[in-house]
Amino acid sequence: MKFLLLAAAETGQVHLTARTRIVAAILAVFFMLMILELIRRDKLQERYSVIWFVAGLGMLAGAAFPGLLEVVASVMGVRNTNVALFSIVLLLLLGLALNFSVIMSRQAAQITRLAQERAIEKAAKQAAEERNGSAPSGEQALQPEEERLES
Amino acid sequence: MRTLVFIPAWNEEASIASVIADVRKAIPAADVLVVDDGSTDATAERARAAGALVASLPFNQGLGAALQTGYLYSLRSGYDACAHLDADGQHPAEEVARLLGEVTADRADLVIGSRYHEGAVAASGDYKPTISRRIGTSVFRFFLTLATRQRFTDTTSGMRAANRRVMALFSVHYSPDFAEIESLQLAVRQGLRVEELPVRMLERVGGSSFLTPLRSAFFIFKGLVVLLVGQFRPRHAEAKQ
């Protein structure tokens, strides 16, 4: 057993099998087709699809040219190419998650500003009505307006 | 000199009318705006009935976004000075008037009402902080003082007065998550004159503080992260006028 392990260590890298490569290639193609379909049905905007196409192409490249992956593995100092593959995918997913957090933050800020603009508009309208209108109480002047807006 | 006093309120129907009445009595020249932060109770109706303008956010956005709404409204409507206070009745309006006085006399751009300043007089019925709040307060006090090289005693005070320079800054940059502390850091870094004034605050009328020990710890941690990040934000010569 010990001898076997040592032998493995001496033979160097552990490679992807041909079957793994075929499965990966099929999955990558399927994945990109799925993205195309999502865009076609307006479920995914083009600007958010670019990163997924890059991921799909990366998968395809890894399957077609396993030498690439082995170069990366040796750069990372990892003997097992599969481990290198998992690490890369994990990093990619981390990057994507971060990207989503950035997009989410931007959209949260936009939503907040939209809500603020609407609130301010309503208050400005109330102020204008109180200046112009003879209604001494803002409540009476605005109540019907409010109900119309809410319903 | 046109002045706006705004009150961020989230489900404060019990106290909002008396707070508005207090402000109108102590600062009769000021317009009063209630920023209703997505209240589900009668806060907006009571505020309108009490004679205040109401800016209703369509859903609850948090204190930072509500305060920013007030600053944005002040800026857009051309007010020369603005002030804000809490809706729960902890902040006496005559103290807000003193803060506004500092701003209108142009002694400072932003004035903070401090309940911990040595000058703050304690009377019966006045504000008494809990232990966890006391710890949080001193931690923030220490780090904010370190970050800004200016002494602050009450970093989370929600009673402030400001001029147009501050409105212009806060209507663009105002952190929704940690508004009170980060805004002070930002204002000092932007070269604005920030000043603390000792004020009296009252014990809250109803309800309890949302801070449990665990929440306080998280709150403090989050605050420190925010302060640290704030130190790396670009420093501008002056805020947009």
What does this structure look like?
The complex is a heterodimer of chains A (151) and B (241). Chain A has one domain (6-132). Helix content of chain A is 85%, strand content 0%. Chain A contains six helices and no strands. Chain B has a single domain (3-230), classed as Alpha-Beta Complex (Spore Coat Polysaccharide Biosynthesis Protein SpsA, Chain A), CATH 3.90.550. Helix content of chain B is 41%, strand content 15%. Chain B is built from eight helices and seven strands, in the order βαβαβαβαβαβααβα. Chain B has helices at 16-26, 43-49, 63-76, 93-104, 131-148, 164-170, 179-189, 213-230; strands spanning 3-9, 31-37, 53-57, 81-84, 110-114, 160-163, 194-198. Chain B has a seven-stranded mixed β-sheet, sandwiched between helices. The two termini of chain B are 17 Å apart. The mean pLDDT of chain B is 86. Classes of the chains: A mainly alpha (151), B alpha/beta (241). At the A-B interface, helix 5 and helix 6 of A face strand 2, helix 2, strand 3 and helix 3 of B.
Largest sheet properties of chain B: 7 strands, mixed
Overall domain count of chain B: 1
Oligomer: heterodimer
Query: Strand order within the widest sheet of chain B?
Result: 3-2-1-4-6-5-7
Beta-strand fraction estimate of chain B: 15-25%
Biggest interface found? A-B, 18 and 24 residues
Helix content of chain B: 40-55%
SS-derived structural category of chain A: mainly alpha
Q: What would the average pLDDT of chain A be, to the nearest integer?
A: 79
Q: Report the C-alpha radius of gyration of chain A, rounded.
A: 29 Å
CATH architecture classification name of chain B:
Alpha-Beta Complex
Number of helices of chain B: 8
**Order of H and E elements of chain A:** HHHHHH
